[in-house]
Amino acid sequence: MNVKSTKDVVKKSFLAFATAVSLFTITTGGASAAKIQKVVVKVNGTAIEINEAPAYIKDNYTFVPLRFVSEALGAKVTWDNSLKLAIVEITEPKANKVQIALNQQDIVINETIITSVGSAATVQNNRVMVPIRAISEGLGATVGFIPNTSGGGTVLITTPWKTPAQTPSPSTTATPVKDTSDSKYMTWTPTSDQKVTGPVVFKPLTWDASTQTLSFQLPSTITNGDEVWEVSSGLRDGSNGDRKLETGVRQKLLGLSEDFMVAININYLPRNAEIDCYFVMSKSYASKHYGYKGSIDDGLLVYDSHKNMVTLETVYKALGITN
């Protein structure tokens, strides 16, 4: 298929896709547009190891290896070497197909051309690298970004379908989400790192269900021995919009919707390592995106980087916090 030859089928209404606002605005701290920055990619809350070639940000676009799309998102990927064209498909919950050609800024979503998505697929170190936002959103996922103050950041991909990253290994001790009892949401044993980060994150955090108000204050960094970990955060609040949250100041999020999530990321940049991640979310958000089946009424859920989902009260208890 020649992507350029089908431009007569362009539908202007789809151009909004190309300029869709990020979950959290990407900033590069004044860095050169050509500078490549490191990035962490999370799919449905799970940080993904990309061993084939590292993900990176260039000109404010995040690139991942083409194979990542198949392995992490569970999509079928076909590469047409003669046309230098990748065809990416998903069948559930509904069929979507994205076609993206090497060195072209147009992509095709379900036979409709979307012009100038911002950055073309390219080759980096003999690997085909593709812009993950364009492909993920074309397949029906939502994509957000939490920047690090020193450059780079964390990409958050949420899919309405189950991905390989969500499938527990045989050795996991986590209780399957399909268990409808509340007991599994009420046991949490913090790791050594979480014993450091947890009190910093959760001791100042309070929830007022009567006014749907979440209050907290995150530091810009957390020091653990010789290491300084960077903290970043963002809010997804249903139809009310998405935004980055500043660290170092008191946040009082008033009147949150019934469908919200606050993402808190803690990274050690010299090793490009994720230390911890906490997603604090409403029952509605947890049910829609993380398969929550419990029966709590007006409390919040916490999903951590080890795929544990527990109530906020359980986190308080495990950390010895009396809020």
UniProtKB/TrEMBL annotation:
Protein's recorded name: Copper amine oxidase-like N-terminal domain-containing protein
Organism encoding this protein: Paenibacillus odorifer
Question: Bias regions of kind Low complexity — which residues?
Answer: 163-176
Q: Which UniProt keywords apply?
A: Signal
State the superkingdom.
Answer: Bacteria
Q: Where is this region: Disordered?
A: 161-181
Please list the residue ranges annotated as the Copper amine oxidase-like N-terminal domain: 42-145
As given in the record, the signal peptide range reads 1-33
- Pfam families in UniProt: Cu_amine_oxidN1
Matching InterPro entries: Cu_amine_oxidase-like_N, Mao_N_sf
